[in-house]
Write a structure and sequence with these properties.
140 residues, alpha+beta, 3 helices
Length: 140
């Protein structure tokens, strides 16, 4: 979902275009640009990772498994960020070259493209093995 609005930002000269992008997981990305379309898109990522402190006496193979698993998880989540970042230039271009009338649809399309890329990545990594589909991923 893309939601547009206008607001005054402290220290800014004039109205700012505010775009909120809601993506799977409920995360919200705020995009600020000048009202004349010359702003830039920024994406803020919030990735929550589990933590674990092994109690005394835990076998070293368990600690090694945890270390490997968390490194794999960090790499996986990092790839999601890379996929969003790959769409960032097109989002910036949509804001720069678009109008207030066109930017909402353009950003909606681009964020959907980014979500599709992320779903395809998850499906390849583990989703197909769990019986998930692109449609179910895109609907979540």
């Amino acid at each position: 979902m893309v939601k547009l609005g206008r607001q005054q930002r402290a220290g800014a000269g004039g109205d700012q275009l505010v775009v909120q992008l809601r993506v799977p997981g409920g995360r919200i990305r705020r995009v600020f640009g000048d009202s004349d379309g010359l702003g830039s898109v920024t994406i803020t990522y919030h990735v929550v990772l589990p933590s674990w402190a092994p109690p005394s006496g835990v076998p070293s193979r368990t600690v090694a498994w945890w270390t490997d698993t968390i490194h794999e998880t960090v790499a996986h989540e990092g790839h999601h960020i890379t996929l969003y970042e790959e769409h960032l230039p097109a989002m910036n271009e949509a804001v720069r070259s678009g109008t207030c009338a066109s930017v909402e649809a353009d950003l909606e399309r681009l964020i959907t493209d980014a979500q599709r890329a992320n779903c395809e990545f998850d499906l390849a990594e583990y989703g197909y093995a769990l019986g998930l589909t692109l449609e179910s991923c895109m609907a979540s």
